[in-house]
Recover the amino acids of this structure.
């Protein structure tokens, strides 16, 4: 378990769950993970999620989504890391795979997709790319 980068740990759990075709993956919960999972659901990359507060620490359970046997998420990559933060202003918001993927950006207005950052005219820290 990664204590220095919980977002990278979350992405690795999702990636590993998709490789072995699991229906869901569990991880310790945090506010930023919940926000990322909400965006993943709204963008159609996962079926859903639920919080299991009966255990300590509380668990975030992510229901993975497949198209037949093929995972909907082809790739998921952490961009900004604790050792090297990556920021983008409004003119330099990344476009993932020519618009086929989504950039998740932490802004002063919360975590947003690259498309909504352009619409709201805000920049921030580029957290991850999903395609």
């Amino acid at each position: 378990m990664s204590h220095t980068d919980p977002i990278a740990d979350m992405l690795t759990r999702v990636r590993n769950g998709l490789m072995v075709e699991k229906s869901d993956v569990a991880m310790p919960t945090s506010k930023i993970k919940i926000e990322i999972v909400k965006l993943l659901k709204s963008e159609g990359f996962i079926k859903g999620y639920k919080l299991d507060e009966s255990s300590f620490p509380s668990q975030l359970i992510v229901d993975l989504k497949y198209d037949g046997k093929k995972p909907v998420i082809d790739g998921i990559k952490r961009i900004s890391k604790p050792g090297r933060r990556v920021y983008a202003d409004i003119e330099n918001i990344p476009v993932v795979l020519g618009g086929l993927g989504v950039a998740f950006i932490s802004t002063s207005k919360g975590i947003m997709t690259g498309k909504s950052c352009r619409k709201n005219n805000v920049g921030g820290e580029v957290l991850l790319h999903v395609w």
About this structure: The first helix runs from residue 6 to 19. The helical segments are 6-19, 31-42, 114-120. DSSP finds three helices and ten strands in the chain.
